[in-house]
Design a protein that fits this description.
This protein has about 150 residues and is mainly alpha-helical. It has a single domain, classed as N-utilizing Substance Protein B Homolog, Chain A, CATH 1.10.940.10. Helix content is about 75%, strand content about 0%. The protein contains 8 helices and no strands. The N and C termini lie far apart (about 35 Å).
């Protein structure tokens, strides 16, 4: 399958939902992934990317949270579950997937926050991820602002 922007978008969509479920229920990641693969039409989804996001966030959770929590105005436990899932996933992407432009990561997170998050969560997500991008992608951000 050729990886399209749409396939990546679906991978992020499902990964955010799977991370949400993992946070809320504490279920086994492999069981959650199998459930998503069974219950959803994954034919137009970048499944390897979905897998990487889901397992990468869980495997590197302390590192990922250490990156974005310094910019929070509250404890991480006080974040709504959608925002927490999005910050975890997007911070992982900014840190580990330098092949994906930082603006794409942020825009996708903002779109998911608008769709699934509480009112105005997208503004909060955007502000935090902008700061994470400056830290994790300083060369790319500086070149972009040029």
């Amino acid at each position: 399958m050729t990886v399209t922007a749409s396939a990546r978008r679906k991978a992020r969509h499902y990964a955010m939902q799977a991370l949400y479920q993992w946070q809320m229920a504490g279920s086994n990641l492999n069981a959650i992934e199998a459930e998503f693969r069974t219950d959803n039409d994954m034919s137009k989804t970048d499944v390897p990317y979905f897998h990487e996001l889901l397992h990468g966030v869980a495997k590197n959770l302390d590192e990922v949270e250490g990156i974005y929590t310094e910019y929070l105005d509250r404890d991480v436990e006080e974040l709504d579950p959608v925002s927490r899932a999005l910050l975890r996933m997007s911070t992982f992407e900014l840190k580990n997937r330098i092949d994906v432009p930082y603006k794409v990561v942020i825009n996708e997170a903002v779109a998911l926050a608008k769709k699934f998050g509480p009112t105005d969560a997208f503004k909060f997500i955007n502000g935090i991820l902008d700061k994470v991008a400056v830290k994790e992608r300083s060369v790319e951000v500086k070149a972009d602002k040029g």
